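Saturday, quiet lab. Running sequence design on the structure tokens for the scaffold JK sent over.
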């Protein structure tokens, strides 16, 4: 990928001759799994609210303490293990909802690999993702934007011999109650797979990036820490959970900081602004279009978002004027992210303490424990300021593209 519009910020010292950044190790990795992290947090702060479902009607909002989240996740794990074996893939095809997060946590305890699927996918795309991933189950919504998700699942099921179970979120309570809580949970390693996230890249069929527990836990934790997300803070999340921004950075980053994950069903600027006020959101992760929608909305001046400390933004080029406008309007810090699913979501990020120019004009510094170079076609680092391909290695590297050895080999070299 070309690094021409924005550059990686360098230390405030004499610039090196080549665009190379050695891995920094001054911060320890948390060598654990998503399931073990949930258990730890539920033990440390059992009565703290950890999850909020944020539909437009306040009367329909639901809350879970961390103890309740763990209890629900253990029931989900038992229900999954009544149907599937550890290591098998189960797809999730639905818009944002709290049950999506509980399924994610339960699958982590059960050693089940979650395959996240964009709810905007239609028949051919869904058939491809389920078939390519070898998913043995799917948990799906009823409809999305007027399209019957149940009908599409039924239409492709007979063409997918590996697909044994289809479960609708409309039957969630019955599904959760169907497991045997005495079923022993498997031992899951930090190196074991946790998620498959489909990424189209620039050409060809979508590829399923296979992500591991160590990467999911630490990429999200370290990103949240760099953004200034404090213990117990509330994170307002309008980013889709099928994406690394929603399902990794927000969902697991909040868990790692023992915070409150406020799940927004789908982006509605009026709803997001209301949740930022009523839930005292300290952080929100956005893309430029979402951020503009919030700043330009007529409700924005009337909303008290004084709890907001940091706006994170990425996914596309973030104009410098947008950074400055956001900081001026809300009096908050800003953190720009740059990354990809193959790196568990984030590779470089600005600090809230960076200068205004660095926050607005660069992509920040590489994350801890990751080595980065900007390379020429031979793989050698280019001179500082020259254009090249960004290459990285470290614990954050994906395990590979699921069942695509040639694509994996072309992406991860020796």
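Result came back. Writing it out in full:
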């Amino acid at each position: 990928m070309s690094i021409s519009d924005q550059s990686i910020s360098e230390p405030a010292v004499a610039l090196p001759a080549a665009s190379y950044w050695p891995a920094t190790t001054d911060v320890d990795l948390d060598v654990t799994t998503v399931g073990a992290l949930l258990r730890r947090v539920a033990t440390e702060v059992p009565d703290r609210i950890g999850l909020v479902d944020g539909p437009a009607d306040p009367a329909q909002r639901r809350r879970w303490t961390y103890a309740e989240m763990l209890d629900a996740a253990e029931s989900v794990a038992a229900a999954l293990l009544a149907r599937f074996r550890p290591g098998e893939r189960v797809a999730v095809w639905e818009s944002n909802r709290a049950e999506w997060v509980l399924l994610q946590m339960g699958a982590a305890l059960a050693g089940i690999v979650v395959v996240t699927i964009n709810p905007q996918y239609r028949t051919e795309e869904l058939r491809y993702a389920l078939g390519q991933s070898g998913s043995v189950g799917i948990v799906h919504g009823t409809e999305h934007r007027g399209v019957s998700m149940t009908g599409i699942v039924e239409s492709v099921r007979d063409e997918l011999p590996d697909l044994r179970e289809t479960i609708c979120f409309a039957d969630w309570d019955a599904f959760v109650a169907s497991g045997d809580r005495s079923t022993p949970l498997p031992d899951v390693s930090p190196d074991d797979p946790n998620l498959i996230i489909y990424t189209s890249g620039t050409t060809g069929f979508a590829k399923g990036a296979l992500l591991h527990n160590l990467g999911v836990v630490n990429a999200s934790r370290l990103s949240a820490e760099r953004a200034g997300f404090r213990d117990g803070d509330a994170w307002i999340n309008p980013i889709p959970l099928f994406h690394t921004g929603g399902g990794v950075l927000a969902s697991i980053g909040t868990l790692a900081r023992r915070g409150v994950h406020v799940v927004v069903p789908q982006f509605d600027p009026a709803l997001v602004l209301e949740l930022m006020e009523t839930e005292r959101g300290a952080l929100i992760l956005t893309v430029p279009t979402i951020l503009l929608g919030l700043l330009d909305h007529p409700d924005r001046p009337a909303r008290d978002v004084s709890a907001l400390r940091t706006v994170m933004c990425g996914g596309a080029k973030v104009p410098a004027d947008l950074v400055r406008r956001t900081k001026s309007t809300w009096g908050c810090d800003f953190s720009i992210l740059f990354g990809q699913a193959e790196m568990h979501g984030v590779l470089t990020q600005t600090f809230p303490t960076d200068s205004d120019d660095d926050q607005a004009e660069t992509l920040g510094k590489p994350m801890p424990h990751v080595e980065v170079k900007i390379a020429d076609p031979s793989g050698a680092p280019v001179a500082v300021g020259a254009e090249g391909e960004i290459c990285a290695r470290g614990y954050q590297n994906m395990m590979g593209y699921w069942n695509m050895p040639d694509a994996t080999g072309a992406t991860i070299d020796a």
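Notes for JK: The chain has two domains: 20-29+214-398, 35-50+64-213. The radius of gyration is 21 Å. Ask whether to fix the surface positions before the next round.
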